[in-house]
Every structure is written in structure tokens, then in C-alpha cells.
Amino acid sequence: MNDIGKFFSNNSPRMAAKTVAILVGGGPAPGINGVIRSAAIEAINSGLTVLGVYDGYKWLSRGSSAHVEQLTIDKVSRIHYRGGSILRTSRINPTKDPKAMQNVLSVLTELEVDYLVSIGGDDTAFTASQLGRMAGEQIQVAHVPKTIDNDLPLPGQMLTFGYQTAREVGAQVVKNLMEDAFTTNRWYFCVTMGRKAGHLALGIGNAAGSTLTIIGEEFRGRPIRIAHLCDILEGAIIKRRLLGRDYGVAVMSEGIIEAIEQGDFKHYVDELEYDAHGNVRYAEIALAEIVKDDVKKRLKARGIDVTIVNKNIGYELRCQTPNSFDLEYTQNLGFTAMRFLLGGGTGAMIAIRDGSPYIIPFDKIMDSESGRIKTRLVNIDNDFYRMCREYMIRLDESDFKDYKRLSRLARVANCSPEEFRAQFGYLSEESTGQVEMTLAT
User: What is the pTM of this model?
Assistant: First the structure.
């Protein structure tokens, strides 16, 4: 599949009276318009008609062809500078209903669509893969992966488009909060987007120099209690006070919600809500506020007065103007998607590896058990993550090995060393080992 030279001749192939449809599914990400632009221009220059499908699969799944517009070079030539999506987007999931999937195929057939460029995350990729199977040779399908979560299994740890812009903007927000925390002697508990993976939270926290970052992967698939998360945060605040600093910023990935035993939320949420793809609606769970209130109560009981402010960092990242990385990256992705389709390809995700186009067949990235697109998680056993941990203020093994240090921490916490160890000692087992250096030869 990656003998891609046939897709990239010097001149674009001229096509006879063929049509490509472009649609966007899932949440917004910086750079969507860049993919639309480059794919549309390459298609038009190759003699194709280009149809922009509004609102993802929403109207197609209802059997309506009314929400489609022909795209021209004049309409798309400068849209790559804009955030958001000129075609809008939706989370409608037609794969849950065979009738809806048949409606999608019927409308695309009615519109005489020969090629489909799908832009979206793992759920949209799954829909594209299923549609490709249904359509057979009738419609060739290419999917361009996008998500600020950076959780799709691209080769060589290549980033998903939108992530770099979101990380850059998020890091600026956290950097500003760090200054405010220092100026006002307070703490901020920030939750960032990242449904399954903690890449965005870790990237933001690491770039901004946050006091600590907590991601779901560090719990290694074990269910945890909200009290566990509060122990990590309370312990960090106490340790930082021992260092003479009464302020800080903690960044948490919203994916931690997946790690918490769902019964713990009964005290805070009447009923968990789910989206069309069966995912818990994280926006309905105020994780930062929940842990803020609990940690404040704990500290108050110790006689420690700390101002803590909760903040979510997410929606303001998704429709940002793309940075230069995502501007260039999305142009290459859109171009590659069209060349892949025009060269006879279908049923694959489009990526870039080592600066060159790379094609990933859908069946290569499907999880054999779930049948869904695999999720790329943060590898908490590699040296990169260990280096990130070295710059965090968290209770670790050294805090409990040295009795003098343990006693000082207990004094700050207004308890005995034995009481401090009894509550927080288990956290030392979760600290990582030393970073091993590999020298180039």
C-alpha cells in the first residue's frame, strides 16, 4: 500500500466528469479548512467536481442531499487561515443504524460521488471504513485524521493535525495562569481535553512548566477513586509549601474520568450522559470543580488556607487559527488524500511519515477485539514521560525514604509522620524510575 510513487506523478491526472465529496465529522480542530482547501484545489485542477457536505453525516444519514454545496477555487483559496470548519461538523454516528448507513450511501449515489474525503477523529474514521466496505468499488474513500487529542495510531509517533496549535495556545493559557498563581498566591486546577489519551494535557503542562500534570495513563488501566486524585493534588500542594511556595498550577487530562470508578460520580452528577458514539459527555462532569472542593475541605481541616480556582481548557483551543506547523501539514494531507484517490487508492487513512506521504489501510489500525480504530496512548514507561515527571512537584519515593523529609512534610500537613505515610505513602509506588540515557554512536 505504501508504494506511493504511482500516486505522485509530476502532473495531476485529468479526470473525466467525476465528483469528490468532502465532509468533516467529530469535534473541531485547527487546520480543518487547510485540508478542505488543498484537497479541493487538487481535485479541481484534476478536472473533478468538488462537493462540500455540511454537518458531517447528519443530513446524509437522514437521506437528504440538500445540504451540499459545490466548492470552487475562489471559495476555498484562502480558507486555510481560518479556524473552525467552513463545512461545519457534527458527531452523528450512522454506523449505529443500518438504515442510516444505507441513507448515506444512497445520497452519495444520487449525487454521483466517485470519491469521498473524510476528515475527523477515530469515530469518523470508523464510519469512513464501514462506508468504504459498503460502497465497494462504487466509491473510493480516504480519511484524513484530525484531533487535538493526538490519539490516533499514526506511524513514527507523527502528530495528528490540530494538536500542535492546541498545545501552543493551551500552553500560553497555563503560562499566564502560572504568573497569576505566583502573583496572587493561589492554585489553579485545570482540566484539558483528551478523551482517551493524555497527550494534550502532558504537552501543555510540559511546555508551560506547570507544577504537575496528571493523565489517565499513569493509572495503567486500574480503576481509581476520586480520593486518589485528591491525594495526588493535596500531596503536591503540601510538598510545594515545604519548598516555600504557596502557589501552583495542576493540569489534568479529562481522560482521567475514564479511570475513576463511575459510582464515585453519583454524589456530583445525577446521571452520566453519552454522545452518539457511546462516549461519556465529559463536559457534563465538572472534574476540576469536584476535586477543587474536596481538596479545599481537606486542607481546611489541616488548618491550611489555600485559594484554589478550577478551570477547563478545551473549547477555546478547537477553533483557533492554525499555527504554521498545522498550516503546512494540512496542505500536504489534503493533497495526498486526493492523489491517493486519483491513483486508484481506497479504504485508508492518510498520514505523513519522515516528511513523505504514508498510506495506512483501515484494517491495519483496527483493534481486533473492539473492531474500532486503535487509540494511541501516552507511553508512561519511556524516557520522555520520565523526564516530564522529573520537572513535576509530586510526592515520590524519596519523600518517604528519608524520615527527616517525611517529618517536615508531616509538619506542614499538621499531622504525624505516621499519619502522613498512612494517607500518602502509596503514591510513592507510582513514581517512575531514573531516566536512562542512550548515546548516539
Answer: 0.90
CA distance 202 to 205: 5
Confidence of residue 438 (pLDDT cuts 50, 70, 90): very low
Alpha helices for 275-343 (secondary structure H): 287-301, 315-318, 324-342
Cα–Cα distances (Å) from 189 to 68, 172, 249, 358, in that order, read 43, 16, 6, 39
- Nearest-angstrom CA–CA distance, 223 and 215: 13
3-state secondary structure of 422: helix
With both helix axes pointing from N to C terminus, report the angle between 417-424 and 226-242 in degrees, rounded to the nearest 10: 140
Using CB atoms within 10 A of its CB, is residue 151 exposed (0-12), middle (13-18) or buried (19+)?
buried
Query: What is the average pLDDT value for the chain, to the nearest integer?
Result: 91
Q: What is the pLDDT of residue 422?
A: 97
- Tell me 24's DSSP state: E
Cβ atoms < 10 Å from Cβ of 420: 24
* CA–CA distance, 252 with 193 (Å, rounded to integer): 9
Looking only at the bridges linking them, the beta strands covering 348-353 and 356-361 are antiparallel
| Cα 354 to Cα 343: distance, rounded to the nearest angstrom | 22
Domains of the chain with CATH codes: 4-161+322-364 (3.40.50.450), 166-318 (3.40.50.460)
For 337-367, the pLDDT digits (tens) are 999 999 999 999 999 988 899 999 998 888 8
Q: Which pairs count as long-range contacts for 230-234, CB under 8 Å and 24+ apart, including other chains?
A: 230/291, 230/294, 230/295, 230/298, 231/423, 231/424, 231/427, 232/394, 232/395, 232/427, 233/189, 233/291, 233/295, 234/295, 234/298, 234/299
Pairing assessment for the beta strands 68-71 and 49-53 based on DSSP bridges: antiparallel
Residues across the chain: 441
Q: Mutual orientation of helices 403-412 and 226-242 as an angle, nearest 10°?
A: 100
Active site residues: 149
